[in-house]
Target: Rhomboid family intramembrane serine protease
Amino acid sequence: MRITRGLHRVWTYVRGAPGTYVWLAVLFVTTVAMHHMSPDFEAEFLRQRSTNIRELSSNPVRVLVSSAMWIDGGRWLPYAVLYSVFHAPAERWLGTARWLAVCAAAHVLATLISEGALLWGIRHGMAPESAVNTLDIGVSYALAGVVAVLAYRIPVPWRAPYAAAVLIVYGVPLVTGRTFTDLGHFTSVLIGFACCPLVRGRARPRNPKETAAVVEG
Model:
């Protein structure tokens, strides 16, 4: 009975975030496929689906979509955990449409801004010409945006520390590493914070102290 109830709770949770788990299922399939590719074939295959400068110049819509269907590094399980911890709660809270809007805004805008910065660096001799073919795939920009927008789900006493922690986690690599992907991640966080209008009308964050008081009363 306990196992049945546990499975029912898991299914209820998954059913409440269909977009998250469909996306995760797609990533599982593509990750398995990637493990069956030879290293040389994989590199060329992913480069054609990468949001690098060359591909964005010729096939922007195709690569912006296809790049979000592959995981850089081929490790699916950590993303299954991250999707369940961040994406699923965000989708259950915002609804699939608004959650998807946050993901799309973070993924697309952060990609364009970071690749634009890289192009500027190439033109000013700060990056090699070969950087136009740099591999840039994955779902981390969308994830960073969702991590940031979840700050509005947290009660006010804890919201500021959470937001500060997010800024530190994504800001430190930008200061120390200063790569275009570090810029992309930090930009995604700012976009997530800027999605404040999308959270209007959603359920008010619960204060744990208030919940405890109700139970005790």
Q: What stands out?
A: The CA atoms of residues 31 and 74 lie 6 Å apart. The two ends are 31 Å apart (CA to CA). Confidence is low (pLDDT under 50) at residues 206-217.
